[in-house]
């Protein structure tokens, strides 16, 4: 479920890394986290269980592009792979905008991969979602192992919806960036079709290439001072303000206001808050009944 932040002009998409235990989900996230610039990522949080960990962090890939002028912030989650942590997997999966299924390429892990993939389908259905309709990719991890199954076999046994696939060795960082780039592009395309009319502004390149110039920021070294007034003090202030009781009628004082009146309070913001631009006047309307 996408979150919108009008103040920062960001929309946040949630990507969950899913798969059986010890398949490489945590290794993927740790490599991504270590290769991101420090100022573009949030703090990594870890929820440890006896045999597994759930990781989370978010980051702002400015190269990813914008939708209607809004940047896309990415939240990355892993789920515990062990079967007895299914309740935790369901909780982490809730509201996911995309899924990366990490499969262990080794032959002995084939059944665990298939069970985990079916578990993903069932858990999404329980939340009213269908994996076939959600952006998702599959990573064939541990391709460097001597008993790794052929990609054709893994594709036939696991990839039921013909999702994009990526070969990887997460321990070496191979294929990690490509997997994240692939799922991020799918998410951006999905969000653009849903909220932006299919239009993505700026090239969709993740974790690489020259970033576009940063937008002009508005900084202020002077805090905005807000004066707190009691109810009595507020009434005293209102008594000195002309009252608009109708389209063209102004009452001389608040003591003669009718039961349904509007008071316009002009507020001028300091020009230092706008980097030298002209001050902005805002009229606050107080409805008194």
Strand content: 15-25%
Give the SSE string.
Answer: EEHEEEEHEHEHEHHEEEE
The overall average pLDDT, rounded, is: 76
Number of helices: 6
Give the CATH architecture of the largest domain: 3-Layer(aba) Sandwich
Instruction: Please identify which CATH superfamily of the largest domain we are dealing with.
Output: P-loop containing nucleotide triphosphate hydrolases
Name the CATH class of the largest domain.
Answer: Alpha Beta
Largest sheet: number of strands, sense, barrel closure: 9 strands, mixed
How much is the radius of gyration in Å?
27 Å
Q: What fold name goes in the CATH topology slot of the largest domain?
A: Rossmann fold
How far apart the termini lie comes to 40 Å
Q: Regions with pLDDT < 50 over 5+ consecutive residues?
A: 212-230, 243-277, 279-289
Structural class category: alpha/beta
> How much helical structure, as a percent, in the residues?
25-40%
| Total count of domains | 2
Shape: globular
Number of strands: 13
């Amino acid at each position: 479920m996408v979150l919108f932040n009008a103040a920062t002009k960001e929309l946040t998409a949630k990507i969950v890394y899913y798969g059986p235990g010890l398949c490489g989900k945590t290794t993927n996230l740790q490599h991504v986290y270590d290769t991101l610039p420090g100022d573009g990522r949030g703090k990594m949080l870890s929820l440890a269980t006896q045999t597994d960990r759930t990781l989370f962090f978010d980051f702002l890939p400015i190269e990813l592009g914008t939708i209607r002028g809004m940047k896309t912030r990415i939240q990355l989650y892993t789920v515990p792979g062990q079967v007895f942590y299914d309740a935790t997997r369901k909780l982490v999966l809730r509201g996911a905008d995309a899924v990366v299924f990490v499969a262990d390429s080794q032959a002995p892990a084939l059944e665990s991969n298939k069970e985990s993939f079916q578990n993903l389908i069932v858990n999404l259905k329980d939340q009213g979602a269908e994996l076939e309709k959600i952006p998702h990719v599959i990573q064939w991890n541990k391709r460097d192992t001597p008993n790794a199954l052929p990609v054709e076999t893994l594709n036939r046994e696991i990839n039921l919806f013909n999702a994009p696939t990526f070969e990887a060795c997460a321990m070496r960082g191979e294929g990690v960036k490509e997997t994240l780039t692939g799922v991020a592009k799918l998410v951006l395309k999905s969000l653009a079709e849903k909220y932006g009319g299919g239009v993505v502004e700026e090239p969709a390149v993740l974790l690489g290439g020259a970033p576009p110039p940063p937008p002009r920021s508005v900084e202020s070294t002077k805090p905005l001072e807000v004066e707190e007034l009691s109810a009595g003090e507020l009434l005293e202030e209102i008594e000195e303000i002309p009252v608009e009781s109708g389209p063209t009628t102004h009452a001389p004082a608040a003591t003669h206001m009718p039961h349904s009146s509007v008071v316009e309070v002009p507020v001028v913001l300091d020009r230092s808050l706008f980097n030298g631009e002209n001050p902005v006047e805002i009229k606050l309307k107080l409805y008194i009944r």
